[in-house]
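Severity: low
Component: inverse-folding endpoint
Summary: output formatting inconsistent between runs
Steps to reproduce: submit the following structure tokens with default settings.
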């Protein structure tokens, strides 16, 4: 009987400790600016094209929202290039809650690529960013 009570007590302590750790981790990830950031890669329509789709969202209209950079790599990890986001190239929007779009990278047909995409949002003096590595896609 004592072993059973001790086992239940230890189980209760374990469960409670896991709840506290989860809550602390959620607080660490909370952002006052970014509410959602996703990025993915897919085959393009033309030879050598890889589409990088992204979605960046905020709770309130952001001064700037979008993609700060897209770093392109070959499947073997070798670096190819980095595209820096600006309003001029369409990777950054101003005064918006959301920026969802697709950037098309043109490489070499038959080569597999992946991207390291950094999304961000700036609202007043608050800014936050997150980085996602896409899956590897073979360019058509």
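Observed output (run 2 of 3):
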């Amino acid at each position: 009987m004592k072993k059973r009570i001790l086992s239940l007590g230890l189980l209760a302590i374990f469960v409670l400790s896991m709840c506290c750790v989860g809550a602390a981790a959620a607080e660490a990830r909370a952002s006052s600016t970014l509410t959602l950031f996703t990025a993915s890669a897919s085959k393009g329509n033309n030879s050598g094209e890889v589409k990088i789709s992204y979605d960046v969202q905020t709770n309130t209209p952001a001064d700037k929202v979008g993609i700060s950079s897209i770093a392109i790599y070959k499947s073997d990890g070798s670096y190819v290039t980095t595209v820096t986001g600006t309003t001029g190239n369409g990777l950054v929007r101003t005064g918006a809650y959301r920026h969802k779009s697709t950037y098309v990278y043109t490489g070499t047909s038959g080569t597999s690529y992946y991207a390291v995409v950094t999304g961000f949002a700036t609202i007043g003096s608050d800014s936050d960013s997150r980085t996602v590595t896409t899956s590897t896609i073979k360019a058509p």
